Each structure stands twice: as C-alpha cells, then as structure tokens.
Amino acid sequence: MRSPLLNKLSLIFGPRPPLNWILLCVVSVLVLIALLGSSSSTTFETVTSSAKPDIYTNYRKLKEQARNDYLDLKSISLGANRIKDVGLCGKERENYVPCYNVSANLVTGLKDGEEFDRHCELSGEYQDCLVCPPKEYKIPLTWPAGRDVIWSGNVKLTKDQFLSSGSMTKRLMLLEENQIAFHSEDGMIVDGVKDYSHLIAEMIGLGSDAEFLQAGVRTVLDIGCGFGSFGAHLLSLKLMALCVAAYEPSGSQVQLALERGLPAVIGNFISKQLPFPSLSYDMVHCAQCGIIWDSKDGLFLIEIDRLLKPGGYFVLTSPTTRQQDSSTIAKKGSTSSPLEEFTKKLCWSLLAQQEEIFIWQKTADSQCYISRQGEVPVCKGNDMQMYYQPLAHCISGTTSHRWVQIHSKSDHLNSTELEIHGIHPDDFFEDSNFWKLALRNYWSLLSPLIFSDHPKRPGDDDPLPPYNMVRNVMDMNANYGGLSSALMEASKAVWVMNVVPLGARNTLPLIHDRGFAGVLHNWCEPFPTYPRTYDLLHANGLLSHIASQKCSMFQLLLEMDRILRPEGWIILSDTLGPIEKARTLAAQIRWEARVIDLQNGSDQRLLVCQKPFVRK
Q: Which domain of life is it from (predicted)?
C-alpha cells in the first residue's frame, strides 16, 4: 500500500516526477532532519549529569516523522535499486552459536573431545540472515528482579534437564508456567550457597566471605557454574565472578547465567587455552564441573596455574574426586593421591580440606618453579597474547613484572603498577576522565529513549528510565576498561564484558588487574556466546580497527545483532567514513539508527542504534 506522501507527490508530479524536483525534495527533507537533530547533537557535548530531560519531549515523534518522509522520497529516487533488508534465519538458528558445529568437526577427523571445542577455522556455515528469538521470548525483567526470575521461553531448557539439575552450587528453582524463579538473597536458600561461600572463606583463614576483598580476592573464574548461584552470591559481595562452561545445544549453563544477567562466556577445558592472559584471576572455582583434573598429564591443572595470580586459590568441590583419591591411595598404599602429587609439582600447597572441598594455594615464590624444572618446565617467550593456543605443558608468567601476590595488590592501580603495564599515569587518568564524561553523555542521550518496561510505549512524554535499565554491557574495544570503571563509579547496576580485539594493543592484563571481566577476541570471528545475551553493545574505534584487519563490517554487524537482545542498544563511535557505512548497513539489518555529530570540530561521530523486536 502506498503512503499518503507518495499519493500526494503522484497527484502533483504524475507517476514519474522530474528528477530535479525529486532531488530538491530530498535536500529539503535532509535539511529538516538536520534542524531537528541539532538540539540533541549540541546538547550531547555540553550535557552534564544534572541535565533536564524535557529537552527531548516529543523528540521521537519528530524524528520518526522526518525519517518516514525521507524514506518515502528515497524509495522514489532509488526505485528498483532500493537496498533490501537482510532476511530472517530459520527456527533451527534460534539458539545458534557459530564455531561449535560438532557434526562438521567430526567429519574433519577431530576426536578425543576436540570435536566439542571451538573451531572457527572450520566453519563454512555463515549465513547472511538475522537470528530470530523463540516464539515465547519476552524482554527480560530489569535487575534485581531479573537476576532471580527469568522467562522460561527465553532459554533452551527441557523439563528433564530442569528436573535433573542438582549441583550444590545451583539454587532450588521453581518452574511456574512461563517463569523460572531462583531464591533471592533473603536467607531462604535451600541448597546453602551462602553457607558454602562462608565455609570457603573460613577454610582460607577468613572470618566470613565478606572479607574476600580484604584478602585480595576480587576476581573469580567459576568453571561449570551450574545455573549461576555461586557467582550471583559473589556479585552481591562486590566480587567479579565470571562463569566459563562448555557449549551445550540445550540446558546451557552459560545461556541461563547470562539470561539472569550474570557474567558468563563459553569456554572448554579440552585442547586449547582460554582467551585470558597469564596471572588473571585471584580464585578459580570448580564445583562438580565434570573435569578430570589429573588427566592429560596434568595439562588442565597447568592451565589453572597459568590463570591464577601468585597466592591465588583453586577451590575444587567434588565427591567423585574424594572417592577416587581414597581408592587410589588404598590401592597404592601411598599417603597422597595423583592429584595431590601433581599439585606439589606446581608448587601449590593444600591449604585445607573438608569433606569434598579441597582448597589449594598457588605459591607466591616464582623461584619455586625454577628449582623444580625437572617436574614441569618453565615456558619460554611472551605468553601474554594467548588466543585459543594449544594447552602447553609448561609454567607461565614466572618472569612477568605482574608477578605480584594477590594480598599485596591495592584496590586502585598506582603509578608503579601502571608503569608495569607500560602506561603513563597521565594517559591513564586522562582516559578515566574522558569516560566519566562520555558515560554522562551516553546516559543523557539514551535516557529519554529507554523505558522501564517497553521502549515503544505510546505517550506524549518520555518518562525517565530506572537506574537499572540495562543489566550488562559489552565494550567491544575496551582499551583500559575506562567505560567499565565509569559505570562502577556512577553506581550503575550493570557489569561490563571488556573485549580486547586481537591485533590491538593487548590491555587485557591491565583490565584483569583492575578487577574487571574481560576476554581477548578476534572480531573477524563470532563471539563465544549465545544469541540475545547482551543489553547494550559499545564500540569505540572498532569499525576502523576491523577495516585495518581486512574484516567484513557487514559480518560484524550481523554478529552484533545475534548477541544483542531484542530492543537492545548499540553505541558506535568512530570517524565519519566508517560511521556512514555502518549506518547504511544498519538500515539493512533493520536497526533504527541515528548519527550524532559531537559538535567539537572533529571528524568523530556517534551512531546510536536500537535493535527491533522482530518475530519470524
């Protein structure tokens, strides 16, 4: 059906209006759009946290009317050459994660578990289509309610998988019609997550788990996290707990944790190192995570040693390990198990054992490894840029300037620690101040556009959104982690996945030393997560970076659409050329896109987009 504007033009000019009139109309509408956008663009540069929201009253109505008129004229001038929207993927891709095609991996001859690992180099399965949400999908609840109650239609979890879940780190779940409810932090936890956390604290010599931060434990890698209960509790204690679990076609621990708004990423202990640098975590935790730690000549334990900071803790909770150890000791008549024997080769000390809980502490003395060269050799060369490299049978990080005991680290990096990372303190503090201002600008820009329940709710005025309008953010080119720090200082109820692109300066060690979550990633490849797992995607300079890496901007935007939830937001900052190209592609992907001129005389622009809620 033709729009009223097209009918009016047809009456005036006939079915084929003169080209000069068409161009005049297009220019007029573009001028109108520029005038309408000038107030918001100018405001973006000067706005502060106390800015009044009424400057945006009726902004969306004007913007949408101008945009619709412009698109009507554009369709006349382009005719048959009009850009087509990207098609929708089939139902089989609703929970699709690229690079984990087990059947295709088997065909290539991969075996011994490697078929379950990540193999992007073998994936020829990319399709230029948009992944649609399941039929029953609903927008997640905001925090803190969304952490404890999720829509069952948003995750691929069968009833049998739900009923069979029983790990001690999973909270009791209640399945009610279209919701899954987890017990909140009100003391009514049936499976004792609080007691479990408290016991771990006592076993490492603390009075309670509230003292984790004082003991230097700020970051925790939770392997095979169940449904995220332990990580959720640690987050309430102001710790950063990142869940890492294997890819699962259904019943995924990572998908469910992310749906709850908890930090998680797909990762395997099979044949490759995890995408983190050496000396990244203060504690690694495994509760019935299904990994046989002393297999493959201890390669998995060596990987844990690589990830742990000096003086860090490895917490293993497994009744099976206790039974296996007792059986092995009885058969051999020895006083220690193979697992304990290998941890001694790694210079770990068994700090405490209670029932099925084992806690080891990594040595803070790097010379210990050198004195035991006959046991496990020390790695040679730089091991900071680890990106899915094969598991190595050698000890990493012993010669690093970052070899600092966790108890000795301060909450904020001082000048000496910054210089260890090769960063001048003035550059660091300038970056921090920049992101504090940028965050205020972002929030002022998005506030009138984001609603507490639904961004398309009708009404003349745009009400202010709640402080927790987004649960998580992915900073796709994180640099020093400045955006994450600014969000924390502003007390926003949100966590950030800081991504350092492959080929850029590797600042991931700095990000981990600041106590933030982060991974190394090649943006020429898909990110290891499930569809619809992030609320907001942010990228500063990433478009220019991927162009220098000879990557496809179109494929990058399709991947962003896959991992972004419906009605989620994108903020891209770059120079004018890449931004204009991205805006054209955004129209094909059906995003609502707007370019913001920062009005500071530079070539820098913002592209602010929203992903629509599209159903098949």
A: Eukaryota
List beta partners, residue 156.
none
On whether the CB atoms of residues 265 and 252 are closer than 8 A, the answer is no
Structure letter (DSSP) for residue 199: H
DSSP state of 547: H
pTM over 0.85: no
Work out the pLDDT band at 210, boundaries 50, 70, 90: very high
Q: How far apart are CA 354 and CA 203, in angstroms?
A: 8
**Residue partners of 132: CB distance under 8 A and separation at least 6:** 88, 89, 91, 93, 94, 614, 615, 616
Q: Tokens representing 173?
A: 């779940």
Q: Is the Cβ–Cβ distance between 342 and 304 less than 8 Å?
A: no
Rounded Cα gap, residues 446 and 612, in angstroms: 16
Confidence of residue 473 (pLDDT cuts 50, 70, 90): very high
Residues 476, 539: contact at Cβ < 8 Å? yes
Distance CA 483, CA 498 (A): 9
- Residues for the chain: how many in total? 616
Alpha helix (H) ranges present in 165-263? Answer: 193-203, 229-236, 253-259
Distance CA 443, CA 449 (A): 10
Task: Give the SS3 label for residue 494.
Answer: coil
Q: Can you tell me the distance from the alpha carbon of 218 to that of 412, in angstroms, rounded to the nearest whole number?
A: 12
Mean pLDDT of 168-186: 58
Beta strands in 84-187 (DSSP E): 87-88, 129-130, 149-151, 173-176, 179-182
Residues 393 and 302: beta-carbon distance below 8 Å = yes
How many whole angstroms separate alpha carbon 560 and alpha carbon 562?
5
User: Percent of the chain, pLDDT > 90?
Assistant: 48
- Residue 492 burial (10 A CB sphere; 0-12, 13-18, 19+): middle
- Evaluate whether 398 touches 371 at the Cβ level (below 8 Å): no
Rounded to whole angstroms, the Cα distance separating 498 from 474 reads 6
Strands of 177-320, DSSP E: 179-182, 219-223, 240-245, 264-266, 281-287, 308-317
What is d(CA 447, CA 466) in angstroms, rounded to the nearest whole number?
Answer: 9
The Cα 588–Cα 83 span in angstroms is 7
Rounded to 10°, the helix 482-489/425-446 angle is 60
- The span from the CA of 26 to the CA of 21, in Å, is 9
And the tokens for 616?
A: 């098949």
Q: Distance between CA 542 and CA 547 in Å, rounded?
A: 9
The Cβ-side half-sphere exposure at 120, using a 13 Å CA radius, reads 12
By DSSP bridging, strand 308-317 and strand 357-362 are: antiparallel
The answer to whether 212 touches 197, Cβ cutoff 8 Å, is: no
Query: Residue type at 474?
Result: M
Q: Are 99 and 525 in contact (CB under 8 A)?
A: yes
Cβ neighbors of 353 (< 8 A, separation 6 or more) are 359
Burial of 127 by CB count in 10 Å (0-12 exposed, 13-18 middle, 19+ buried)? middle
**Tokens coding 466:** 């709640």
What span, in angstroms and rounded, lies between the C-alpha atoms of 582 and 298?
47
Reference 282, options 311, 242, 243; nearest CA is 311
- Measure the CA–CA gap between 132 and 143, rounded to whole angstroms: 24
Q: Per-residue pLDDT for 9 more than 70? A: no
Residue 342: strand, helix, or coil: helix
State phi, psi for 189 to the nearest 5 degrees.
Answer: -100, 115
